[in-house]
Write a structure and sequence with these properties.
The chain contains eight helices and ten strands. It is an alpha/beta fold and 248 residues long. The strands form two sheets. The protein has an eight-stranded parallel sheet. A two-stranded antiparallel ribbon has the order 9-10. The relative contact order is 0.15.
Amino acid sequence: MKQFLEVCIDSFDSAVNSQTAGADRVELCDNLYEGGTTPSMGVINLVRENLSIKLHVIIRPRGGDFLYSGAEFDIMKADILKAKEAGVDGVVIGLLLPDGQVDTKRTRELVELARPMSVTFHRAFDMTPEPFIALDEIIATGADRLLTSGQKNMVPDGVKLVKDLIDHADGRIIIMPGAGIDEDNIAEVAEKTGATDLHVTGTEIVESRMTFRKEGIYMGGLPEIPEFTRLVANVEKLRRIRNNLDNR
């Protein structure tokens, strides 16, 4: 059985590289240091024009938690409609209540608004207190897919829960493991979980072409966020991931 490979990206270059390497789908984000927020329409349109593989776009108005105000929810609805107009294949959402439960009412509203696009509920799920209850709630919203690390920082540490979630779902939704999957462990993760969809990054560090580099000033406010490097999907690394998945 051929597994479906999704690559998480935050740039046009990474989108093109992912397609070249054999990805089946990309999840287009901005601000991956924040866990991903909605990219600009300029990026969405350019990626859509240049990719023949599936394009999913994250709909997240800000970083931080997943408890959204009325205004933020309106922004999410507007961004979903814009994504639909742009010919996007799917959107990626996640909304929680103050107690950490899934916000089923507003999630269902976004799922219905997004149709006929596919809908993935993202790793907001990994912040819920009761994973099997949350899974059933997400299924009830009509979402097509759940992205999860097994409620750990990295999938290899959460692989047992991912497998249990797949068993519990029993075909009612696609469970897609993601976070910390690379060329060295993707075959093992696929084997242990039985997942049909897997979510990776496959990036390399690319140096800035700036010759003058002002020291001690951080546009993101934190020295941990690099100013003169960025992460870009690497074609050869993704090809190895694809090959190791297909040839296990």
